[in-house]
């Protein structure tokens, strides 16, 4: 890929480690259930090579955040994580940048967490999804309530975030409240609360599920808002709740339309210059990527597609954004559609963001930008 004439768009690094013990029936990510078997060190070498070969895209920018996602990155050895981080020390915006790694409860031990912190990880994203056994079984998770609570306890003094899903089969508003109360009682400072969505190419897509009805979902959302706000959590994005000072810097960079370099099999990238915005991904097969870190599906984002891309990211941020804080000059076509949203009472006049009504019906609001 040729080098781009880059602007000052902030840049984050996403590292995809694809191993999982099992395929969750709701997951459509690029994963493998093959054993790691030392391939984590081989993949780390390929990732280091990929970053080095991406120097034209990185240019003179430093990474403002790093995120190890997957898959289940905690299945990889600490040695391979450290190998990657050591290779990019001179590419970090500061020694204090947020470096997150996803873990599943079964992989959390005091020793493993200590090793990861020693390697340079300073934030852990814990994939709990639920603390209720029947809900975990409905989701096809490979951990139970006991291991979820134990993992949460081990991470009590670590900068951490928890993933929780609602709208699960067999879930009730009362059981969601129980889940949230466990998190509130811990020292966790960030929560990602997602409604279960059934994606094509997943096991769930082929099954007939008895999910909670719309009334139950609305009740769950009201309960969540009430409980979290009363206990010091602020919603700053559609699915994100944070205590003061603990917003996810990596995810904010996505939503604020910053750039991100994705490395690892199946990872996605967005890179800007003053003339264009490109998105592409890396090839998905693990062995293929290890042998050759090829890119695929390179696409220039322009016109209506750019308007939609902007809306789907910027409007997720609850408090909105000032024009001067954006890394891009908004296209005239976007601003014309945005004015229609202002006229309909869905979008803010003084900054880029949704009104209370627009945020409540965000999917419909975003349709303005098709």
TrEMBL record:
SUPFAM superfamilies: Radical SAM enzymes. Its main location: cytoplasm. Residues 5-234 form the Radical SAM core domain. SMART domains: Elp3. It is found in: Cytoplasm. Keywords: 4Fe-4S, Chaperone, Cytoplasm, Heme, Iron, Iron-sulfur, Metal-binding, Oxidoreductase, S-adenosyl-L-methionine. GO terms for molecular function: 4 iron, 4 sulfur cluster binding; coproporphyrinogen oxidase activity; metal ion binding. GO terms for biological process: porphyrin-containing compound biosynthetic process. One of its GO terms (cellular component) is cytoplasm. It comes from the Bacteria. It holds the Pfam family Radical_SAM. Probably acts as a heme chaperone, transferring heme to an unknown acceptor. Binds one molecule of heme per monomer, possibly covalently. Binds 1 [4Fe-4S] cluster. The cluster is coordinated with 3 cysteines and an exchangeable S-adenosyl-L-methionine. Belongs to the anaerobic coproporphyrinogen-III oxidase family. HemW subfamily. This is Heme chaperone HemW. The lineage of its organism: Bacteria, Pseudomonadati, Pseudomonadota, Gammaproteobacteria, SAR86 cluster.
């Amino acid at each position: 890929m040729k080098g781009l004439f880059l602007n000052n768009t902030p840049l984050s690094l996403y590292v995809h480690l694809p191993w999982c013990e099992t395929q969750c029936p709701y997951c459509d990510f690029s994963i493998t259930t093959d054993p790691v078997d030392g391939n984590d060190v081989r993949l780390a070498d390929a990732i280091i090579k990929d970053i080095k070969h991406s120097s034209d895209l990185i240019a003179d920018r430093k990474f403002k955040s790093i995120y190890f996602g997957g898959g289940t990155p905690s299945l990889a050895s600490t040695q391979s994580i450290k190998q990657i981080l050591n290779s990019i020390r001179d590419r970090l915006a500061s020694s204090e940048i947020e470096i997150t790694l996803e873990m599943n409860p079964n992989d959390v031990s005091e020793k493993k967490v200590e090793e990861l912190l020693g390697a340079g990880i300073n934030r852990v994203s814990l994939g709990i999804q639920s603390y209720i056994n029947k809900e975990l079984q409905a989701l096809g998770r490979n951990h139970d309530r006991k291991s979820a609570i134990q993992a949460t306890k081990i991470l009590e003094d670590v900068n951490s975030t928890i993933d929780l899903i609602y709208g699960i089969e067999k879930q009730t508003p009362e059981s969601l409240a129980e889940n949230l109360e466990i998190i509130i009682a811990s020292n966790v400072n960030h929560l990602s609360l997602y409604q279960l969505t059934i994606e094509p190419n997943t096991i769930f897509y082929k099954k007939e599920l008895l999910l909670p009805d719309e009334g139950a979902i609305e009740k769950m959302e009201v309960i969540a808002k009430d409980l979290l706000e009363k206990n010091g959590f602020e919603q700053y994005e559609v699915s994100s709740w944070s205590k003061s000072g603990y917003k996810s810097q990596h995810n904010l960079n996505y939503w604020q339309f910053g750039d991100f370099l994705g490395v690892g099999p199946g990872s996605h990238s967005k890179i800007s210059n003053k003339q264009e915005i490109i998105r592409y991904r890396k090839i998905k097969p693990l062995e293929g990527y290890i042998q050759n870190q090829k890119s695929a599906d390179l696409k220039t984002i322009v016109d209506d597609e750019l308007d939609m891309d902007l809306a789907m990211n910027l409007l997720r941020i609850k408090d909105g954004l000032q024009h001067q804080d954006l890394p891009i000059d908004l296209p005239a076509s976007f601003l014309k559609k945005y004015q229609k949203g202002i006229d309909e009472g869905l979008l803010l006049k003084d900054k880029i963001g949704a009104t209370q009504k627009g945020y409540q019906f965000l999917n419909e609001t975003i349709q303005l930008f098709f």
